[in-house]
Each structure stands twice: as structure tokens, then as C-alpha cells.
Specification:
Layout (H helix, E strand, L loop, with lengths): L2 H12 L4 E4 L4 E6 L3 H11 L8 E3 L3 H5 L6 H10 L4 E6 L11 H4 E2 L2 E5 L4 H10 L3 E5 L11 H4 L7 E2 L12 E4 L6 E2 L2
Parallel strand pairs: 1-8, 3-6, 4-9
Antiparallel strand pairs: 1-2, 2-7, 3-7, 4-6, 5-6, 9-10
Helix pairs in contact: 1-6
């Protein structure tokens, strides 16, 4: 992977496209979290029910706080696990400008799922684009995640695939609900 492929991904994302990008867990679909049409494309490509909102990659805790309410206690938990394969459900901030258009696709029951990945090139992309990215694993809903480019290339409707070769078999991120009084593992 190179800075050239990161810059091409940023160009496609800024134009409302969908990108397949390697993560620290599996290949992921990415779209601008503030672009309703781009997020809709992911739902269509993945055949994902719109009742299942997408998680969001953020570059750091500061960006997370622009989208969610994070208490001091929640921050301690998050700081121990980010960056890494941990997605946290947090209380969403009403009227967050970055997600105003697309909130129904990434927020459910006033909760938003956020993650800072531990992947060098994805973190560079997040820092350079400087906006939250809606994300989900590359697969058709209900089927296993894909880790081979030759399989991903068969999926129709993707605007750009960033090829990092065959990824090792890994599980998607662990998901924790931090909106209650206790940390609850969902996946």
C-alpha cells in the first residue's frame, strides 16, 4: 500500500463514493459518514437492512467526542482499548454537523458505534480526510467476511478497492455498549 492509494481513496470518498479498504480486522466498506447517498450505496451493495446502522471510524477520541457524549469513566475505558479492534456504542450527540444528513443510517436509539482502528494506513487516511467514515465489514449481509481481493472484486457497485493482498482470517471488532452503567459486550 502507498500514499498514492490513500490519496485516491480520499478522492473517491470526497466525491461520495464507496471504498473497500484493509483494516486491523477485515476488509471494510468505507463512505463519508455525512453523505447519505454514499452510505446508502453500502447498504445496497451489502444488501444490509437499513434497520442495522453502520459503525463509524474516527481518527481519535477528540473526533469521537464531536459525535458522542463521552463521560470521564467512558473515556478511561476507551483509552485502554483505542486504537484497536474495539467498537463502542455511545450516546450520540444531537445535531452533530458531521452526521446531520445521514444520522438515521449510523444512529439508532440515540446511540452511535465508534472505533479508532489500529491500522497504519487506515489511520493515515482518517487523519488526512479529517472526517468520520461510516464503515462495515466487506460481505453480503449474513455471509462471512471476505479477506481475498478476487472474491471482493465480484461484488457489484464498489467505486474503489484498495488491494492489500489476502488478509489473515480475523474476527470483526468486538462491540461494547457503553451507554449504560456497566460495560456490556454485544459481539
Amino acid at each position: 500500500m502507498s500514499l498514492k492509494s490513500i490519496n485516491k481513496a480520499i478522492e473517491v470518498l470526497n466525491q461520495g463514493g464507496t471504498v473497500v479498504f484493509p483494516t486491523d480486522t477485515v476488509y471494510g466498506f468505507l463512505a463519508d459518514a455525512g453523505n447519505k447517498k454514499a452510505i446508502n450505496k453500502i447498504f445496497k451493495i451489502k444488501k444490509r437492512p437499513k434497520t442495522k446502522p453502520l459503525a463509524v471510524f474516527v481518527k481519535d477520541l477528540k473526533m469521537a467526542k464531536e459525535l458522542a457524549k463521552v463521560s470521564a469513566e467512558q473515556e478511561k475505558i476507551i483509552k485502554k482499548r483505542w486504537p484497536g479492534p474495539y467498537t463502542f456504542l455511545l450516546p450520540s450527540l444531537r445535531g452533530a454537523s458531521a452526521t446531520k444528513q445521514s444520522k438515521k443510517y449510523i444512529i439508532k436509539n440515540n446511540k452511535i458505534a465508534l472505533r479508532v482502528p489500529k491500522h497504519k494506513f487506515l489511520l493515515i487516511l482518517l487523519k488526512k480526510i479529517n472526517k468520520p467514515l461510516a464503515q462495515t465489514s466487506v460481505n453480503i449481509s449474513g455471509q462471512p467476511e471476505m479477506n481475498k481481493i478476487k472474491d471482493i472484486e465480484k461484488i457489484q457497485g464498489i467505486d474503489l478497492i484498495v488491494d492489500a493482498g489476502t488478509l489473515p482470517k480475523r474476527k470483526p471488532s468486538q462491540v461494547f455498549d457503553l451507554t449504560g452503567d456497566i460495560l456490556t459486550r454485544i459481539r
